[in-house]
Amino acid sequence: MNSLTDLEIIASVKRGNQADYAIIIDRYKNKAFSLIKRMLKNEMEAEEVLQDCFLKAYNALSSFRQEAKFSTWFYRIVYNTTLSKVSARKRKIENEMSSLEDHFNLESDYDFRMTENSDLSSFVNIMLEKLPPNYSSVLNLFYLNEMSCEEISEVMNISIPNVKVMLHRSRNALRDLFIKNDLIREVS
Amino acid sequence: MNKLSDDILNKYIDGELDHTSLKYVNEVLSSSIEDKKRLQALLAVHSELKKIKENQVAESFTNLVMKKLKVRNKAFKEQRHFIYAISSIFVIVLLVIIGLIIYYGVNQSGGTQTSQTYTQVIISFFRLIASGIAQIFTPRGISVFGSIISLGILISGYFFFENLKASKQKVRKSH
Questions:
Q1: Which of B49, B54, B68 has its CB closest to that of A30?
Q2: What's the gap in Å between the CA of B158 and the closest CA on chain A?
């Protein structure tokens, strides 16, 4: 059953085999959770939003026309739901203004003691969570979900050049940290 | 001084440069230590980003979502059944009213239609319905009919919202 494609599973769910939706959940839960967690920067909230996304997707399955890949369609739901949550939170707590801003400064968030105790991968993971939601989403979708810039632009509803600008900016910000702290030597 | 912009270096990594640009970049990189260092740093970031790991969601997550889906579906089915039941009651009441109109109409005409032709029976049938409807649209008929319909809407509305409330509570309990 696990070897079936997304479309085959969706067709089965649409035919009334509700239990097959569990395969879709198992297939996407961790990657979607990573995206949401990096956008919200809160594990508990991320899990709640993820549940909401799967329920929304299930209820909207009839509107899925198979014009796009299921993953693109699903991640669009995930991204929009999470963005709504971020915006709602932003309205509530004015101090979190930086979350949706276009400019960010990783250096100010960077804890230099961190690299003494942990490896470079954990450092990158932590820095990813420091990025504004839209930037961390681009990196997450590009590297973890292995999506193309075209697919990311569909998920985030922005232009392809914008996706590339965000991808480059995020990489450059991390690179500057790598250079400044002489972390390149640690990479084999 | 940097000869290569960040944009070009990023495009170099993503393999988006055309042959001429690629040749130029390679030439610059072989002569500029500064640019080479920047590229190496960018490659290091690129390589580390490729290694980022998935965050694991709780083991019970799938079961939890499936349970919620079942509860939602059950609540949705209950609501649908309730709407069907209410609609059926309305249809039955309507049929009873129409039946009564026809019955009284037939009695008033003295049951003569048995000797009429099939077409005449149909015509008289529709005439009876029309006269019945016309009776409803008398001032008294409208007020009686309106009262029955309003009462029906009020009662079904009450039960519908109670049903909705119970379903929402069920969904909330499953969280």
A1: B54
A2: 27
> What SS3 class is residue A77?
helix
Nearest CA in chain B to A42: B55
Subunit contact A30:B57, Cβ cutoff 8 A: yes
The tens digit of pLDDT for each residue in B75-109 reads 888 888 888 988 898 899 888 877 766 666 666 56
Work out whether the CA dihedral A188, B5, B10, B12 comes out positive or negative.
Answer: negative
Considering CB atoms only, which of A125, A140, A175 is closest to B45? A175
Cross-chain Cβ contact A124/B10 below 8 Å: no
Alpha-carbon separation of residue A65 from A70, A147, A187, B121 (angstroms): 9, 20, 44, 52
For the segment A82-102, what is each residue's pLDDT rounded down to a tens digit? Answer: 999 988 887 766 554 444 455
Residue A104 near residue A173, CB atoms below 8 Å: yes
The shortest C-alpha distance from B141 to chain A (Å) reads 45
Alpha carbons A5 and A2: distance in angstroms, whole number = 8
Residues 6+ apart with CB under 8 A from B69: A18, A21, A55, A58
Please answer yes or no on whether B62 and A22 come within 8 Å at the CB atom: yes
ipTM passes above 0.90: no
Six token digits for residue A168? 């480059």
User: Cα–Cα–Cα angle for A20, A24, A27, nearest 5°?
Assistant: 135
H-type alpha helices, chain A: 6-14, 21-40, 43-59, 70-92, 106-109, 114-117, 120-130, 133-139, 149-156, 160-180
pTM: 0.70
Give the chain A residue nearest B34 (alpha carbons).
A179
